[in-house]
Amino acid sequence: MAIQRISRPSFRVFLLLIALFSLSVKPTAVFSEERPPKQQPLPLPTGMEITPTAAPGAQFAALDPGLASYPDFRAANAVATLTSPDRRTLLVLTSGYNRLNDQSGKRDRAASDEYVFVYDISQRTPRKTQVLRVPNTYFGVAWRPDSRAFYVSGGMDDSIHVFERDAGAWKETSPTISLGHTKGLGINIKPMVAGIAVNSSGTKLLAANFENDSVSLVDLGTRQKTAELDLRPGKNDSARHGVPGGEFPFCVVWKDDQTAYVSSERDRELVELSLREGLRIARRIALPGQPAGIILNRAATRLFIALHSNDRVAVVDTNSARILETIPTTAPAGIFANPKGWKGSNPNSLAFSPDERLLFVTNGGANDVAVIELGSGVAPAQKASAKEDDERSSSSRLLGLIPTGWYPTSVSVSRDGQTLYVSNSISPAGPSPVNCRNSTSLKLRSDQACSAANQYVLQRRQAGLLTLVLPAPAELDALTRQVARNNHWIESPDHRAKREKMALLRSRVHHVIFILKENRTYDQVLGDLEKGNGDPRLTLFPEGLTPNHHQLARQFVTLDNFYASGGVSGDGWNWSTAARVTEPVQENVSINYADRGLDYDFEGTNRGINVGVGSLEERRAEDPRVPDDPDLLPGTADISEPESAGEQGGAGYLWDAARRAGISLRNYGFFLNLTNPQLPAPGSPDEAEVQMPWKTKTVVAHPSKTPLRDVTDPYFHGFDQRQSDFFLFQEWAREFDEFERSGNLPALTVLRLPHDHFGSFAQGLCGINTVEAEIADNDYAVGLVAEKVSRSRYKDDTIIFITEDDAQDGPDHVDAQRTIAFVAGAYVRRGAVVATRYTTVHFLRTMEELLGIEPLSLFDAAVEPMADVFETSPSDWAFAARVPEVLRTTRLPLPPRAAGEAPKSAASAYTAPRHDAAYWEEKMRGLDFHVEDKLDTPLFNRALWEGLKGSDVPYPEERSGRNLRRNRAALLAKFAPRPAN
Question: Quick one: how many helices (H) and strands (E) in the chain?
Answer without folding.
Answer: 19, 41
